[in-house]
Amino acid sequence: MRLRGPGRGRHGRRWLIVALVAAVIAVQLPVLRGPADALREAFVPATRLLTDLGRAVDAPLASWRAGEDLQAENARLRAENARLEADNARLAELERQNAFLLAALGFKQEYAQLTFVTAEVVGFEPSNLARALTINRGHEDGVRPGTVVVAPRGVVGQVTAVTPRSATVLLLTDPRSAVDARAQESGARGVVAGLGRPDLLVMRYVRQEEFLSLGERVSTSGLGGVFPRGLPVGYVGYVQRRDVDALQEAYLEPAVDYTHLAQVLVLRSDAPGPPRGP
């Protein structure tokens, strides 16, 4: 019978203890993991709450920033729209001025024997009838009372008052205005006067035996030595004629749109005298 030594027995017991501890740890490991998992699960609602709170705070901030961006974009678009409108207005004004200058050039070529100066309309008589207007030319520019004022389409009126740099023009539509005129086709003569309306003139003192045609052009006759001969006055729209009367009248559509005058031509006082009628 062999006996074991004390050292060999102690060594074997140590390994047995280690094996037992390892077995216990292996058995208890799921249990030890449980509290950590439970702790993590306990923090899940808090984490979700913090996430939701962050989203709740970020949403208004994002909305506010988007609103600021939208306001800034609206302001930029409004400024751009205003700039475009101003550009369009300038272009429209340039087109209007170019159209006037082209028409005025043709008018001046047609009446090359006369000298005109261009004037801007700077005011109208404070009346719905607009029977007088103010221009930015005066006696420093050769304008005098009685000076003839025209537009490329025809007669506008006569100057009645002058300052160094402005003048008042009495329109042909004013009842106080009158100009000797002649119908282009029939040769009928009469005196064209205003009726206080911007859209109607009357031709009086036409002899009964004269036959005016509707649409016939009526121009200045040159009689009287004030208005040059051949300036358009209007077009026959209606003839009032009665056999019992010695004279007849014709109502004319003005050649000039008196309600939209922006520029006119003024016959200079130092220009050659206007042609007289035969």
Q: What's the arrangement of secondary structure elements?
A:
Elements: H1 6-110, E1 116-124, E2 132-135, E3 148-151, E4 154-162, E5 167-171, E6 178-183, E7 189-194, E8 201-207, E9 217-220, E10 232-240, E11 247-254, E12 263-267
Antiparallel strand pairs: 1-2, 1-12, 2-5, 3-4, 3-12, 4-5, 6-7, 6-9, 7-8, 8-11, 9-10, 10-11
Describe the structure.
The protein has one helix at residues 6-110, and strands spanning 116-124, 132-135, 148-151, 154-162, 167-171, 178-183, 189-194, 201-207, 217-220, 232-240, 247-254, 263-267. It has 278 residues and is α+β, with helices and mostly antiparallel strands. It folds into 2 domains: 1-110; 116-267, Rod shape-determining protein MreC, domain 1 (Thrombin, subunit H). It is elongated and about 110 Å long.
What are the salient characteristics of this protein?
278 residues, alpha+beta, Thrombin, subunit H, 2 domains, elongated, disordered N terminus, disordered C terminus
Pick out the low-confidence regions.
1-6, 271-278
CATH superfamily of the largest domain: Rod shape-determining protein MreC, domain 1
Strand residues, percent: 25-35%
What's the count of strands? 12
Q: Which percent range fits the helix content?
A: 25-40%
Give me a quick take on this structure.
This protein folds into two domains: 1-110; 116-267, Beta Barrel (Thrombin, subunit H), CATH 2.40.10.340.
